[in-house]
């Protein structure tokens, strides 16, 4: 009888279900397991549970129709559906077509269905499904075989013109080996023209030969065909063995790349010494053993390296070779060399491991791999060829692994725990000798089942343990559970059971490996600890400090009444990590870090932090916690207090503030004193230099020995240095007036273009002397502004003089005058008059740009400060010019700023003056 079938009948009519059951049970060819369900949802649940071979489906169900059921079944089974035959009382062809499209294998009309027809329909549908599955598996095997072939394989169809002449071939399929051979992917070849892929296909003559195969049906076979292929990527020259056979209106081709073989043959033909070199360079011993002569007739030089003998010495030993050198134990268990090859076929390899004595007396492990090399006329083996390799190191590693396993067994016996391996499917449990130490039973006194262990479990813990293992089996791979189990002395012991779960492909647990440890002592210590904590609680409520007890993880398990009174927290809210809710946000992370360190070291926890009082005010506290440890030194709990130190902290803060203020004042005074000293030195230098020149030329003039040219030169020098000195004194006076607020301006209507022109003419000689290009772009349409003409000339002269001073010969200085309505970016050094926050609506913009030495980003914010030299190279001056210029511009209601890309990249100074009827700052 054929294999039993499981059939699910889905019909809300009990009479119809009864009839179908009767029809099936009358079947003599098959036996059936019949499931029945009257609703679609119930049937889907049965399909998940039993996976039936076939389904008889009524089209109209109370909750779903047949098409809806098929859609949900397809989704539930992810396409791997059982055979479904639909039954309906309506012979509607449209419904039949829809049902077949949904995956139904056949369609029967109620009232017209006989027992024979029902059985034959089920047999046919199941058989067809099996055939389709077999066909699919066959196609998968074919594709897998082709894809894993080492040989290249392709299928091609002919492309014909209107006269039925073959003009090309289309690539229908190529396997992975063909893609690697052509160095092209399947996407680059699939459905493409073969002549376009292989550009040399026609010229090589292979195209015409393929056409002959298709037209005549005569296969084509070529050995070692040398073929040069030009594709779109590169030129490939290969040697191939190719077979081409007609298939339909096309051909299939298989070819093997024998390029390496041909090259190897060519190399072998070049020199016989090539073989000798290979033999001598192989890491193992290569030998040929003659079974008739019972001796080695060839050995390579590696025998000397691995065994310490020359090839000739081994050959001279003859048949005594193995007796002399092989270990007696290995010689006794190894088969006789000339008999173990009697039944060996050509190509079969015999492998053997044994020990050989080195010439130095040391025993070394070897692994030989032998095969028949030549045979006698009667077919019996004549000579064998083999290689042997020194595997001593591998054997040593294996020995270490064996010893490691022994150590594990010893360790398992040494630790105070039971190690077990539970085969869940077979319900068998392997346990170590630790069972005796845990429960007092020997392995012989127990049953190797999980049931035996469950019977020893305390009755109150059995349900807990069962529920835990069911939950663990469903969704966990690791477990740890504590419970009580009965010792042989009839006393219950607390144990910790922990391990891992191994699952099958369906996710079902099949194996559990774990350990069971006696934790009775720890449990008793925990009970004693809880009793001690009760005493602590009574004591803590009487203390004025905030008292707390927490576990090893930092979760509060107890706080005293004073804690609740201070923080306003109820006890339930304070427990766990509720203490973090009253901790100042800035103190949470430092407190946790200090806690982690104390947990790591097991030492006293001491940290200052702020707690929030019930009225929202934070007060400083000193938290101190003592660890409570078990006998093994592990921290079980922490007992701590938090003492209010807020008053002390405030005194410390006031003292630190006073100290900081004193240090700041001292630093500012020292900086001011240094600045004064530097300024006095600079003033002395800059006043002394022109005086020295004046005095020097005055002495020379007094001799009255100068001609007219030198006389003029002396007077010019005296005049120039006198002016320089006057300029320095004027800068000092201006800065003094600025500091005292006595600097006054004389306003009049000033044409900016004219003023800039005068300033340019003033500095032109200096620029010309350095061959500096002085350029200007001035908007002459800008109206006159109210300004002090002399002070404005002073500002422009200072900026232009600096630009020329710090621009090397051959450089360029450019002056631009324009207007703008927006303030500049705050990214540059910017001076703004006090009290001006709103941007000016219309502003005159004066920009002086140079190609000079530039200003570093570090110096840029300080260029307008008094006594500041913006460059390391001293160019003269007191560092007051830009500070004065800034103040003068601000008195005009404007701003001045400096920008520079960096050292060596020039600088730009920008002056902005308001184009309003009145200045923002007056006399």
Automatic annotation (TrEMBL):
Domain PAS, by residue range, is 271-330, 404-476, 532-603
Q: What class of enzyme is it?
A: transferase
The family database entries (InterPro entries) matched by this protein are listed as: CheY-like_superfamily (IPR011006), HATPase_C_sf (IPR036890), HATPase_dom (IPR003594), His_kinase_dom (IPR005467), HisK_dim/P_dom (IPR003661), HisK_dim/P_sf (IPR036097), PAC (IPR001610), PAS (IPR000014)
CDD domains documented for this protein: HATPase, HisKA, PAS, REC
The Histidine kinase domain is annotated at: 682-917
An example molecular function term from Gene Ontology annotations: phosphorelay sensor kinase activity
Q: Which residues form the PAC domain?
A: 350-403, 479-531, 605-657
Q: Identify the keywords attached in UniProt to this record, alphabetized.
A: Coiled coil, Kinase, Phosphoprotein, Transferase, Two-component regulatory system
Key word Coiled coil present in the record?
yes
Q: Which residues form a coiled coil?
A: 648-678
Assigned EC number = 2.7.13.3
- Give the 4-aspartylphosphate positions (modified residues): 58
Tell me which residues make up the Response regulatory domain: 6-125
What is catalysed by this protein? Answer: ATP + protein L-histidine = ADP + protein N-phospho-L-histidine
Q: State if Aminoacyl-tRNA synthetase is listed as a keyword.
A: no
Name this protein carries in UniProt: histidine kinase
Biological source species: Komarekiella delphini-convector SJRDD-AB1
Taxonomic classification: Bacteria, Bacillati, Cyanobacteriota, Cyanophyceae, Nostocales
């Amino acid at each position: 009888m054929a294999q039993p079938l499981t059939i699910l009948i889905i019909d809300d009519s009990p009479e119809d279900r009864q009839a179908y059951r009767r029809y099936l049970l009358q079947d003599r060819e098959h036996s059936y397991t019949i499931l029945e369900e009257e609703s679609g949802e119930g049937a889907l649940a049965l399909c998940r549970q039993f996976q039936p071979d076939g389904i008889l489906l009524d089209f109209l169900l109370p909750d779903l129709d047949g098409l809806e059921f098929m859609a949900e079944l397809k989704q539930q089974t992810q396409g791997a559906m059982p055979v479904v035959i639909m039954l309906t009382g309506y012979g509607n062809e449209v419904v039949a077509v829809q049902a077949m499209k949904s995956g139904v294998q056949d369609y029967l009309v109620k009232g017209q269905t006989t027992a024979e027809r029902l059985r034959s329909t089920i047999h046919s549908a199941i058989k067809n499904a099996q055939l389709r599955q077999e066909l699919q598996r066959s196609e998968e095997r074919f594709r897998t075989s082709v894809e894993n072939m080492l040989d290249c394989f392709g299928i091609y169809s002919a492309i014909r013109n209107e006269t039925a002449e073959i003009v090309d071939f289309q690539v229908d399929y190529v396997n992975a080996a063909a893609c690697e051979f052509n160095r092209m992917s399947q996407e680059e070849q699939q459905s493409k023209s073969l002549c376009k892929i292989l550009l040399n296909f026609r010229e090589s003559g292979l195209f015409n030969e393929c056409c002959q195969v298709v037209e005549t049906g005569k296969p084509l076979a070529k050995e070692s065909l040398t073929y040069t292929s030009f594709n779109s990527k590169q030129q490939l020259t290969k040697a191939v063995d190719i077979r081409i056979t007609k298939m339909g209106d096309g051909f299939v081709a298989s070819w093997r790349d024998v390029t390496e073989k041909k090259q190897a043959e060519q190399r072998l033909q070049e020199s016989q010494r090539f073989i000798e070199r290979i033999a001598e360079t192989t890491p193992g011993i290569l030998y040929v053993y003659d079974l008739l002569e019972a001796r080695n007739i060839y050995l390579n030089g590696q025998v000397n390296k691995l065994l310490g003998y020359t090839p000739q010495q081994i050959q001279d030993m003859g048949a005594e070779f193995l007796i002399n050198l092989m270990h007696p134990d290995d010689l006794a268990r190894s088969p006789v060399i000339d008999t173990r090859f009697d039944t060996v076929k050509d190509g079969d390899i015999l492998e053997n491991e044994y020990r050989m004595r080195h010439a130095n007396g040391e025993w070394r492990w070897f692994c030989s791999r032998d095969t028949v090399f030549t045979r006698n006329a009667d077919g019996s083996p004549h000579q064998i060829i083999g290689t042997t390799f020194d595997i001593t190191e591998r054997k040593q590693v294996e020995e270490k692994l064996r010893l490691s396993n022994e150590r594990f067994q010893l360790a398992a016996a040494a630790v105070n725990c039971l190690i077990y391996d539970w085969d869940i499917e077979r319900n068998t449990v392997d346990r170590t000798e630790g069972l005796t130490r845990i429960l007092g039973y020997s392995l012989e006194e127990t049953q190797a089942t999980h049931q035996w262990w469950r019977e020893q479990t305390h009755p109150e813990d059995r349900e807990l343990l069962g529920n835990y293992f069911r939950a663990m089996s469903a969704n966990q791979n690791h477990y740890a559970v504590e419970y009580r189990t009965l010792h042989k002395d009839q006393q219950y012991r607390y144990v910790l059971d922990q391990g891992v779960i191994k699952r099958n492909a369906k996710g079902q647990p099949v194996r559990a490996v774990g350990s069971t440890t006696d934790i009775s002592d720890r449990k008793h210590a925990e009970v004693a600890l809880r009793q001690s904590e009760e005493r602590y609680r009574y004591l803590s409520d009487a203390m004025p400090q905030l008292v707390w007890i927490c576990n090893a993880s930092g979760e509060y398990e107890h706080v005293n009444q004073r804690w609740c009174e201070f923080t306003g927290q109820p006890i339930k809210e304070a427990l766990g990590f509720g203490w973090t809710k009253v901790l100042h946000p800035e103190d949470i992370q430092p407190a946790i870090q200090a806690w982690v360190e104390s947990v790591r070291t097991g030492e006293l926890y001491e940290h200052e932090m702020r707690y929030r009082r019930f009225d929202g005010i934070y007060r400083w506290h000193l938290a101190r916690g003592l660890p409570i440890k078990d006998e093994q030194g592990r921290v079980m709990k922490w007992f701590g207090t938090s003492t209010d130190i807020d008053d002390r902290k405030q005194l410390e803060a006031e003292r630190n503030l006073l100290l900081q203020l004193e240090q700041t004042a001292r630093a500012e005074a020292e900086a001011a004193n240094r600045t004064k000293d530097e300024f006095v030195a600079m003033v002395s230098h800059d006043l002394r230099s022109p005086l020295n020149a004046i005095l020097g030329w005055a002495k020379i003039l007094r001799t009255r020995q100068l001609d007219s040219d030198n006389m003029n030169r002396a007077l010019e020098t005296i005049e120039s240095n006198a002016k320089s000195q006057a300029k320095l004194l004027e800068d000092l006076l201006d800065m003094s007036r600025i500091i005292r607020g006595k600097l006054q301006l004389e306003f009049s209507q000033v044409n900016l273009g004219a003023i800039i022109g005068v300033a340019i003419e003033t500095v032109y000689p200096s620029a010309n002397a350095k061959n500096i290009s002085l350029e200007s772009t001035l908007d002459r349409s800008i109206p006159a502004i109210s300004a002090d003409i002399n002070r404005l000339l002073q500002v422009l002269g200072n900026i232009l003089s600096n630009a020329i001073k710090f621009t090397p010969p051959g450089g360029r200085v450019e002056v631009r005058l324009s207007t703008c309505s927006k303030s500049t970016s705050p990214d540059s050094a910017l001076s703004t008059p006090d009290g001006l926050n709103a941007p000016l609506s219309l502003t005159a913009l004066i920009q002086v740009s140079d190609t000079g030495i530039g200003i570093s980003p570090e110096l840029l914010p300080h260029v307008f400060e008094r006594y500041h030299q913006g460059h390391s190279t001293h160019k003269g001056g007191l560092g007051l010019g830009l500070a004065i210029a800034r103040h003068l511009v601000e008195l005009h209601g404007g701003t001045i700023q400096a920008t520079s890309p960096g050292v060596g990249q020039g600088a730009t100074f920008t002056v902005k003056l308001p184009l309003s009827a009145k200045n923002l700052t007056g006399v």
